[in-house]
Amino acid sequence: MIVVITAEAEADLEDIASYVAEQSPRSALALIHGLRETCESLAAAPRGYPLVPRYEHKGVRRRPFGHYLIFYRVGSDAIEVIHVLHGARDYEPLLFPET
Fold first, then answer.
1. Three-state DSSP class for 8?
2. What is the DSSP code string of 40-70?
3. Secondary structure of residue 71 in the 3-state scheme
4. Which residues contact 51 (CB under 8 A, 6 or more apart)?
5. Which one is predicted more confidently, 93 or 99?
6. CA distance 88 to 64
7. Nearest partner of 39 among 70, 12, 16, 14, judged by Cα
C-alpha cells in the first residue's frame, strides 16, 4: 500500500519546519525527517492506530509522533495523510469543519 501526503499535510510540515527552524534549523530537519518516515511507516500497519474518538464514522485515524499527531485515512489502495498537527492544537475544526 502506498502513502500519499496531501497538499494540506505538506503545508502542515512546512509550517512545522519554519516554526522549529526559528530556534534550531538542525532540529527542524530532524523533526521533519522523522515525521515523514513515520508517515511512510503507516504502510506496514495501516489500521494499527485508532480512529479519532467521536468521529469514527469519518474513518480518520491518528498516529502520534512526539508532540505531533499524524491524521490519515486508509483507502482501498493508498493511505492518505491529511494533516500533521501539534497535539496541543484544537484539531477538530481543521479535520471536521462541517461538524
1. helix
2. HHGGG-TTSSPBPTT-GGGTEEEEEETTEEE
3. strand
4. 58, 59, 60, 61
5. 93
6. 12
7. 70
Residue 6: CA count within 13 A, CB half-sphere: 14
Instruction: Report, as an integer, the average pLDDT of 2-30.
Output: 96
Nearest Cα residue to 91 out of 67, 46, 20, 1: 67
pTM for the predicted model, two decimal places: 0.94
Determine the pLDDT at residue 99: 58
Cell numbers 474513518 correspond to: 59
Query: What domains are there in the chain, each with its CATH number?
Result: 2-95 (3.30.2310.20)
**67: its cell numbers:** 508532540
Residue 23: strand, helix, or coil: coil
- Report d(CA 9, CA 84) in Å as an integer: 6
| Phi-psi label, residue 28: left if phi above 0, alpha if psi -120 to 50, beta otherwise | alpha
